[in-house]
Design a protein that fits this description.
Layout lengths: L3 E6 L2 E6 H17 L6 H21 L7 H11 L7 H10 L1 H20 L20 H9 L3 H10 L1 H14 L27 H9 L4 H18 L16 H14 L6 H7 L6 H10 L4 H40 L3 H38 L12 H29 L6 H29 L2 E2 L5 E3 L8 E6 L18 E3 L2 E4 L2 E7 L6 E7 L1 E2 L2 H9 L5 E4 L2 E4 L3 E3 L9 E8 L4 E4 L9 E5 L25 E3 L1
């Protein structure tokens, strides 16, 4: 049995066999001798040690109790030994044989991965297949896991792209690569490139990962904004591009912010090499550092400070984790005495987590729906929201109160799946602060808007003179709209559509009552809301509603025009048609539910209320295209 010791290596506490530690120490000393005359030797050795420590961490995460001699030798073989790069002849041979070695390494990696995919001992695990990937290796990994042809999975992913897009990204981020099963194997990882960034380095990181020019992903993220700008002038309500397909600018913002928060920045040399898919070995680390020596002193100083902070944080965490492990061990000892109590507690926990999960899902779904609804109403904002603070509060509500929680929860889920914990506190408190600002904007907007709808108008009814009031039958018809009203996937009454800079709302209600004479009579009552009675009456008096009789047909306008000056304050019109006893009337089919025009049948002395939509003693159902005799 070999002796195991704990060492502090690059800020990590590593349990390692004493003989393995001797091998590691000899390897580090050989590196110091080899790079003694190289420019930036300290940075090169420091990055190599950091890479070795990272590989140690990966081995321990897989369940190893300590680092063995075999582990150290495998890591050294993957990184390369100084003698492998000694002299110009060896360097030339390496360059000439690089392609052959790469093919041999790929074959070896593939064989190892195939073995790990087909193993029968223990539970099978899902990996992304780096050897046969087209994009992220998700489809080929699923094919290996389920024993299905990779092409079948890819065809299904293409056919159901709209549904599979978001799950594909989540699996890509959360599921480990098959390359992680081979110590020091070449793999490509997605990072943010902090050295070539404009905002956060997301686009430059994507360009390095996919091997394209950096302007390509930047243009792809900007295209939705151009399509939004050019489309906005012809944008009717709810007729906007699909949100998740990123053909609408909030979709690209949503994706960019999520990638910004989820993807780590490539800070170390190993990260930069993996970002480009290059092998992390001595030669590549040396070349990368020497190519970046200009201004590298400041970056090295920053790296040292961060490394010290990380080491201090890890040292503190070790003490905390040790105390927690002690408490957990004591707790487990006590729990073993009461298994029935454990079962009851587990059931209650499972139920509580289920309730919490449903609650969070409901919140995210509700906020997402509200965000889509308010985003779809953006063309009508200038007809509802007043300029100044009210407009600022509206934007704050949309962005901070609604979209920030959605982005925050999605980011939290993805970070949990990908096991990223860096800057969690900063991100959490930043989202909370932004949401509290959004909550203030939301409350302020509600207070401001409610003041605008505080009072109701009380204008007297207007009588419409008919050209032939003594006819025996009257056909009531809502005229065809002179504005574009499309059948979109989502509607929100009372908004309809636009003509130029005018918004039309079909807030029309028709009342059929008994006439006190032998002639038809038509009256109009105009209503509006306002911050006071005089303001409401002024807005109601500005309503223009056209009613024209042509022979036996009474043509009614289909909507009320709202301009950006007067704003929408729930302006609506009641048209009262008094029908003589014994005479006929008919409601044309255009007055169905799609026109948003309500037809009621009741007595004239009924106190009609716009907000009471339930049928009462004075309301009856009227069918269209049916002749009625009063």
């Amino acid at each position: 049995m070999k002796k195991v010791i704990n060492i502090n290596f690059q800020g990590r506490v590593i349990p390692i066999e004493e003989s393995a530690y001797d091998i590691l120490k000899q390897y580090v000393e050989s590196l110091r001798r080899y790079f003694a005359n190289e420019e930036g030797r300290d940075e090169i050795i420091n990055d190599i040690e950091g890479r070795v420590a990272e590989l140690f961490g990966e081995i321990l995460k897989k369940g190893a109790t300590c680092i063995t001699d075999d582990d150290v030798n495998k890591i050294i073989d993957s990184m390369g030994r100084p003698e492998d790069f000694d002299g110009e002849e060896a360097s030339v041979k390496q360059q000439l044989g690089g392609e052959q070695k790469q093919q041999q390494s790929s074959s070896s990696n593939y064989a190892y991965q195939q073995q790990s995919f087909t193993q029968t001992d223990g539970p099978r695990r899902l990996y992304r297949d780096e050897s046969h990937k087209v994009l992220g290796g998700v489809c080929s990994g699923l094919g290996n896991y389920f024993g299905v042809d990779k092409m079948v999975i890819r065809i299904l992913a293409i056919l159901f792209f709209g549904i599979m897009f978001i799950p594909y990204l989540i699996v890509w981020i959360a599921v480990p690569s098959s390359a992680t099963q081979v110590i020091g194997s070449r793999r490509k990882r997605l990072f943010r490139d902090g050295e070539d960034k404009i905002i956060a380095g997301v686009c430059s990181g994507l360009s390095s990962y996919f091997g394209v020019s950096v302007w390509v992903p930047r243009l792809l993220f900007l295209i939705p904004f151009f399509s939004f700008v050019f489309r906005f002038g012809h944008w009717s309500l709810w007729n906007f591009p699909h949100f998740l397909s990123m053909s609408f600018s909030p979709g690209s913002i949503f994706a960019y912010v999520i990638l910004w928060l989820v993807l780590p920045e490539a800070k170390t040399t190993a990260d930069k090499l993996e970002m480009k898919g290059e092998k992390v070995d001595l030669n590549n680390i040396k070349n990368t550092i020497q190519n970046d020596m200009e201004g590298f002193g400041q970056r090295a100083k920053k790296f040292g400070e961060e490394l010290g902070e990380r080491a201090a944080a890890i040292g503190q965490n070790i003490g905390v984790k040790g105390a927690e492990m002690g408490r957990e061990a004591a707790t487990l000892t006590k729990k073993s005495r009461n298994s029935l109590g454990d079962i009851i507690v587990w059931v209650f926990k499972a139920f509580a987590y289920f309730i919490i999960g449903c609650f969070i899902f409901s919140i995210v779904s509700g906020l997402f729906a509200a965000g889509v609804a308010l985003t779809g109403l953006m063309p009508a904002w200038s007809y509802i929201i007043a300029d100044g603070w009210q407009n600022i509060f509206a934007w704050g509500t949309l962005i901070l109160f609604i979209w920030v929680p959605v982005i925050g929860i999605v980011t939290f889920i993805i970070r949990r799946l990908s096991k990223r914990k860096g800057n969690s506190g900063i991100i959490r408190y930043s989202f909370l602060s932004l949401w509290l600002i959004g909550l203030f904007c939301f409350i302020s907007l509600l207070v401001s808007i409610s003041r605008e709808f505080k009072s109701k108008s009380n204008l007297a009814p207007e009588t419409i003179a008919l050209s032939n009031a003594g006819i025996n039958k009257l056909d009531i018809k809502v005229s065809n709209a002179d504005y574009d009203e499309e059948e979109n996937w989502l509607k929100l009454t009372p908004f309809a559509s636009f003509v130029g800079d005018t918004l039309y709302v079909p807030n029309i209600k028709i009342r059929i009552i008994k006439s006190t004479s032998d002639s038809f009579q038509v009256g109009v009552i105009k209503f509006s809301r306002g911050k006071n009675r005089s303001s409401a009456n002024e807005l109601a008096s500005k309503i223009y509603y056209n009613i024209v009789q042509t022979d036996s047909v009474l043509n009614l306008a289909k909507g009320i025009a709202i301009n950006q000056t007067d704003k929408f304050r729930n302006q609506h019109v009641w048209v009262t048609v008094a029908v003589p006893v014994g005479k006929k009337f008919m409601i044309r089919e255009s007055n169905n539910h799609r026109s948003h025009v309500r037809v009621d049948f009741g007595s004239d002395d009924y106190e009609w209320n716009w907000y009471e939509w339930s049928d009462g003693d004075h309301t009856k159902s009227i069918s269209t295209n049916v002749e009625y005799i009063l």
